[in-house]
């Protein structure tokens, strides 16, 4: 019986010691915040503020020239106690710790949650982040689209085609027959031609892929809002695919064939759409939606690529470089 009592006593001492060690780093430490300010636990916020101001004037370091270090420490304790008790939520957590000192893990969590948790509503942070990403995304898409237009305006085949369309539709007022009557400078006429060419290319040429003309549906915010709708569409498309081609075993249409080819190639939709029309027609002609045909086609493409590399002087030089040691080789100057 005596041994059991001694064991329980040791456990109680250990628990108290652990509790005190945890409390030493929380709030006012081992001191009582109410006692530091000289108020009771029932004190109102106004009473706490009055008590703090009174003690702050009394223990301000400037009022204690001879014992400035001790006054500074006391002033810090008073300020810390006031910061804890003036905040209603933090005061509630502190009162809970006083009433439940044995729940040191919960008290520890509450203290640091109040002290270091972000004060801004996480929903606002997430909303602002998504907005910034959406703006950057939209700006980047327009930048890519304008770059593609600039390239098309400089490319001869697109430029000549746009000039023919502009002249046939009478969009160029400064044509060859009207240049003598046109009193504008060459720079003004040239500027008008460039604007018309760009407008024709923008209207007549459909740019696919990542350089296509951006829409609001490409923005992250819109995609998140319409996510349930897109999810329903995908589930419906998947169920339709299973029913039509797995259960009923119908033949694939052109859209389904291209989908399988893109899947085999492991290309994103934007990347596959950026391919030329004749390339997709070639894929369909070779029936690459069939796994065996695609595997053979891929092996042939890889063999052709290796043959081209083998004939390339630059690749031969690279192979000699790698054979001699590559990036990790050591050299002590010319041999």
Account of the 3D structure:
- The structure is a single chain.
- With 335 residues, the chain is an all-alpha fold.
- The protein folds into 3 domains: 10-116, Orthogonal Bundle (Helix Hairpins); 123-220, no CATH class; 227-325, no CATH class.
- The chain has helices at residues 2-23, 33-37, 45-59, 68-86, 88-99, 104-116, 122-154, 156-168, 186-204, 220-225, 227-247, 254-265, 269-273, 277-285, 291-311, 313-323.
- The longest helix has 33 residues, at 122-154.
- The protein is elongated and about 95 Å long.
- It starts with a helix and ends in a 12-residue tail after the last helix.
- Mean pLDDT is 79; it is low at 5-20 and 328-335.
